Amino acid sequence: MTVYPSRNRRDSSPKRAAESQAEFFDRVAGAYWDQVRDVINEWWSHLPDQARSGVRSRLVDRNSDSNVSSALWELYLHEMLLGSGCTVEVEQAVGTRGKYPDFLVTRDGEQFVLEAIWTSQRIGDPTQDAMSGRLLDAINGVPSPNFFLSVSIIRVGSVEPPQRRLKAELVQWLGGLDPDRVQADYEQRQVPLPTHIWQEAGWSLSFTAMPRSPGVRGRFSRGIGIYPMIWMRDRSDHVLGAVKKKGGKYGDLALPFIVAVGQAALFPEEEDIATSLYGSSVEYAHTGIASTFGRLSDGYWSPSRDNGHRRVSGVLVVDNPAPWTWAKNTPVLWRSSDPRSIPAPILPTWASARLAGDEVERKPAAAPAYSAVGLDQDWPAGEAFPRHAA
Fold first, then answer.
1. Domain ranges of the chain
2. Would you place residue 102 in the very low, low, confident or very high pLDDT band (cuts 50, 70, 90)?
3. What is the DSSP letter of 240?
């Protein structure tokens, strides 16, 4: 048994809005995606027999993209640990609460526990999530060789609007626009980009036409260029919540304990991680002398907190872990600043950060991340969605 059986796949189009992650990975054709499926199958085969069934069921879950993402995250971590010379036991009873963390790891005769958590979060106006996958796919299917579309919701109807009339109206509107004139008016005369308001069945949608670059015009591609659907919260709260959720789950472990956070993040900033773990950085002004800097007691490991947070030895963070970033993103281990924590080991492919005084001291990885997972730096090779002329 494998996760993705070998078969003749012919549909090489990008992921559709109405399509789950599991459906997309199994459906999409092309050499790029064959590489992804082959590696997932191989890494899955490296799991212990008793763990394969559960991971496979999440990888092929067509009802939960979160299940797919979390399973891929755990698969990546397991392979990275193996490739770093570790022996990995999956879901062993460890700690005073009799529960089963993800990985009990042994390296050079020393053991540590690693618990994985995948996290992503939506914020903003919930009406922006109201468009169904079918409606988004219908808009993306509008022939728009000369323009991208920016879409926003003014009003949400009680039923899904008729897609055929919407598409016909957009085709007619876009067909009457000259991309060169629109671009010149916008750049030279500050004329706003053309906007079209569509209303039907209680819905009101606003479309803005943005000219494509001349070199790519005439090709059929997705119509939507901007749709404000998913944005991430301040990562300081995001990571802090993930670590709190896992940090006290297993009681006292008597071993180094690392929480591995894989997260979807649009604009990753390391300072947000430092804030979540070590506290907010502040400047104190003094009359007649230079200002000084310090940290507030709002971090996970802030000295004023005596709540068991010392049990977490480190937080391993990877931004946007996915098959297309596995060979490129460097994991960063944020080391506990609590002197009562058991020191966390640092693998060669991990960068590290620690609190030195009130400043964060960073150290680069000793080896490239891809070396631990057996991939080339440019893997997967080729283009995910090669462009073809219309």
1. 21-121+233-372, 126-226
2. very high
3. H
